[in-house]
Design brief:
- With 299 residues, the chain is of the alpha+beta class.
- The protein has four helices and eight strands.
- The chain has two domains: 147 residues, no CATH class; 124 residues, no CATH class.
- The chain is 65% helix and 17% strand.
- Strands 3, 4, 5, 6, 7 and 8 form a six-stranded antiparallel beta sheet that branches.
- A hairpin with a 2-residue loop joins strand 6 and strand 7.
- About 10% of the residues have low confidence.
Length: 299
């Protein structure tokens, strides 16, 4: 019998041969594959353990989330009105924006007008500067005189309290006029010679400490004026301080008293003398008490 050549049979033979070759190659790789699986098996166990741990953690997280979800939802519910209010305010602001743009345009227009008028304003400023410089020059010329005027005003302010109290001194001094038999003569402010009782004068002779600077620098007339002012201060319960000034010596001072208090059964005041003389100042404290004859004595 004559065999006929067939392409299909040839192709089938080739396919069977290739399959046999592939199976042979695969069987050669099986040992290596098995070896790789053996090496991977421990890691698979670890991965399985890790997956289990992850599942446990996920369960914990889920439980925690389930617990916190209600609180989060409550906070969201609380926040919603605020958000709605913010949205409403935003809508109001957006409605006001057109009016704001109009105001900004008006401001820009006014700025342009101001820039237009700026040169004339600068000219006026220059004129003011020139006037100010002239005024400053004149003030500098008067500054020396002003210092002298301020000094005189300061002295006048210091003398005013003394002038205001002289009338009150007259009232006290007038009560002693005519007591010639028991009086010593001292200088008066207004007319002639005013007389004070001799025992009153003797009680005030110690108002200036003999060891003080005041005793070395004050004149006899200064002390006499101070005595008169002490009597005026002690005789008036409403007065807390008096001032004295001697035009002849230029010395002056202030006398103040504390509220009345009792000491050894006597009514007393503490007097503070602030004396000014020859650009110096001294403060003295004296205790004055009223004896059984109602005469004031330096204690």
């Amino acid at each position: 019998m004559k065999t006929q050549f067939s392409y299909s049979q040839v192709l089938l033979s080739v396919a069977i041969g290739y399959l046999a070759y592939a199976l042979l190659s695969f069987t050669k790789e099986i040992p290596e594959f098995i070896h790789a699986v053996d090496r991977t098996t421990p890691h698979i166990s670890a991965i399985v353990n890790e997956v289990e741990l992850v599942r446990i953690e996920i369960g914990k997280v889920r439980t925690l989330v389930d617990k916190q979800v209600p609180a989060i939802l409550r906070q969201v519910d609380t926040t919603l009105p605020i958000v709605e209010q913010g949205l409403a305010q935003s809508e109001q602001y957006s409605k006001q924006l057109p009016q704001l743009w109009i105001h900004l345009e008006e401001i820009e227009r006014q700025i342009q007008l101001l820039q237009h008028s700026l040169p004339s304003v600068l000219q006026r400023v220059d004129a003011v500067i020139k006037t100010t410089n002239a005024t400053t020059a004149e003030v500098s010329l008067w500054r020396a005189h002003s210092t002298q005027y301020l000094t005189e005003i300061k002295h006048s302010r210091q003398d005013i309290p003394q002038y205001l109290t002289r009338a009150e001194v007259m009232i006290i001094e007038a009560k002693t006029i005519g007591q010639e038999a028991s009086s010593g003569l001292v200088s008066g402010f207004i007319q002639g010679v005013i007389s004070l009782p001799l025992d009153v004068v003797s009680g005030l002779t110690g108002i200036v400490d003999a060891q003080s600077l005041s005793a070395k620098n004050l004149t006899a007339k200064d002390v006499t004026i101070m005595q008169e002012q002490v009597l005026l201060l002690l005789a008036n319960n409403n007065k807390k301080q008096v001032f004295w000034h001697n035009n002849d010596s230029g010395n002056r001072g202030k006398i103040s008293k504390t509220p009345k208090f009792k000491k050894n059964g006597l009514s007393c005041h503490k007097l503070t003398f602030v004396n000014h003389f020859k650009d110096q100042q001294e403060t003295l404290d004296e205790l004055m008490c009223q004896d059984k004859y109602d005469l004031w004595q330096v204690m």
